[in-house]
Write a structure and sequence with these properties.
510 residues; 3 domains; 18 strands
């Protein structure tokens, strides 16, 4: 008897329909074969499915069983085909009808229960696009799958429950999406905990409001890492479109935990400086998303920026400019979004004390130049805000400690950032962008008209600092963000002047 069940295979951020065809033949020696380019995990489904069916007190057919995963020329990987294979085998053996227009997806345990399986959000999205009505997934993955409205997502705990439901002996209610409450999610650090560094805090606020890239340079212990880790506390939650984009990436990467649902908090990724270019950018034999894609619509924090491999850093140049990247392999080509905010921190020299007011730098001029040249000019040119973090004097630190209760908390700064983001969201309706940093030349021409005085100041500064065309336009974007934080519709001289403060003192652009 031949039974066909629908499932899906992941390719980048998309799902491809897979027909699981199971033939249980009464003739021939007993066997269990899976064809259709299965990988090792799919091939091992034979043992999981057989044991799970027997553990569920159902009879496993002692016959010749052939499973074909069509299309047969597309590689299949993972454990997600356990459920559709088991469903088709039991249907063929017991004559139990399977509902039409249904998708099955999930990994089986040996006791017949279902385990959390990555990619269920993408599967439900595919089901809606394909006109299918029902999706059967593990209970721990149902919250992720139920994000898509208009599809019946059935949370299944075990094989036994599934077939009791098909026989009408047990009711299984479709999962209902429940929006998470984010009000009780505290940040790791509060801005009020950072003593001194008021200019750096202001720069972080501007970066958060416009999603601008920022580089923090300073001696050890000046608060660079703490500033970066306080950034999530002033970022607004993702809007609906951004949240769906991020959830697609995390679903494909298997980064959504059991019971997890729509990702509404901006990602904050902190790879170690020993990360390879593939780990940072993505790739592999079967392409997978890297850290820059997992940081989409959020923050990529690169601590000890100069210590990252040169090849990995240079690979950031194109994604920083385009907001996406295409990974091409001989048999597959996938496109991943990578619209992230880069936050980098670095020491000024190998010992870290160059230009320190009290500690002597032990590095030679050659060592300093070599260390600083690890970051190329084109990469520096793609960073909007450059901040020097000075050491805080002990006496000033003591005074600030006493007055810390009067410092601005992250919640206060966050409200200003949210208002600025709302202004940008309304401004760019229909333009398919969300923040000022994403503006291209037509957007700048349309939304960033400079008065004559402001334009003169910017032109004089560009000549003095030898700004590249990219840096010139970045100054306008930053000024637009500063004006949005003030709620001012027009960019003024003061906004341009403040934006220019965040250029490096010695421009290293190439």
């Amino acid at each position: 008897m031949l039974v066909k069940v629908k499932s899906g295979a992941n390719s980048g951020l998309e799902m491809i329909g897979v027909d699981v065809e199971v033939n249980v033949a009464s003739r021939g020696l007993p066997s269990f074969d899976i064809v259709g380019l299965p990988d090792k995990a799919v091939a091992e489904s034979r043992e999981r499915v057989k044991t799970a069916i027997q553990s569920s007190k159902m009879e496993f057919p002692n016959k010749k069983i052939t499973v074909n995963l069509a299309p047969a020329d597309f590689p299949k990987e993972g454990s997600c085909y356990d459920l559709p294979i088991a469903a088709a085998i039991i249907s063929a053996e017991q004559g139990c009808p399977i509902p039409e227009k249904s998708l099955f997806f999930g990994e089986l345990s040996l006791d017949g229960s279902l385990r959390h399986t990555k990619g269920t959000f993408l599967l439900t999205l595919f089901a809606k696009e394909s006109g299918l009505n029902n999706v059967f997934v593990p209970k721990d993955s149902a919250a992720e799958a139920s994000i898509i409205r208009g599809i019946n997502v059935y949370p299944i705990e075990s094989l036994k429950q599934l077939f009791r439901f098909f026989e009408g002996k047990e009711a299984v209610e479709p999962a209902i999406y429940q929006k998470e409450d984010l009000s009780d999610t505290p940040p790791e650090f509060d801005m009020a905990e950072i003593l001194g560094q008021e200019q750096a805090k202001r720069a972080m606020e501007i970066a958060a409001a416009g999603s601008h890239n920022i580089l923090l340079v300073g001696s050890p212990g000046t608060g660079k890492t703490m500033l970066a880790r306080a950034l999530p506390g002033i970022l607004p939650p993702l809007n609906e479109e951004e949240a769906l984009e991020v959830t697609k990436i995390y679903s494909a990467a298997g980064q959504i935990p059991p019971g997890g649902s729509l990702i509404r908090i901006p990602p904050f990724r902190t790879p170690h400086h020993t990360a390879s270019s593939v780990g940072l950018i993505g790739g592999g034999t079967r392409p997978h998303p890297g850290e820059i894609s997992l940081a989409h619509r959020g923050v990529l924090f690169l601590d000890e920026f100069n210590e990252f491999p040169r090849l990995a850093l240079e690979a950031l140049r194109q994604p920083l400019e385009d907001g996406c990247l295409t990974i091409a392999r001989s048999k597959e080509r996938v496109r991943y979004p990578a619209r992230f905010m880069l936050v980098a921190s670095a020491n000024p020299c190998p010992c870290g004390y160059l230009n320190h007011p009290k500690k002597q730098c032990l590095c030679s001029s050659r060592q300093v130049r070599k260390y600083q040249k690890r970051i190329s000019g084109p990469l520096l040119d793609r960073i909007d805000l450059h901040i020097d973090i000075p050491p805080v004097d002990v006496r000033e630190l003591s005074e600030n400690q006493k007055a810390s209760e009067f410092l601005e908390q992250s919640d206060v700064i966050r409200q200003r950032v949210i208002k600025a983001r709302q202004i940008q969201y309304q401004r760019f309706l229909g333009d398919n962008i969300f923040t000022n940093s994403e503006m291209k030349n037509p957007h700048i021409k349309k939304y960033c008209k400079l008065p004559k005085e402001a334009e003169q100041v910017l032109q004089q500064a560009s000549i003095k600092f030898q700004l590249s065309a990219r840096a010139y336009l970045k100054m306008i974007k930053i000024a637009r963000t500063i004006a949005d934080l003030e709620g001012t519709p027009e960019i003024g001289v003061s906004h341009i002047a403040e934006a220019l403060q965040y250029r490096p003192k010695t421009d290293k652009n190439e």
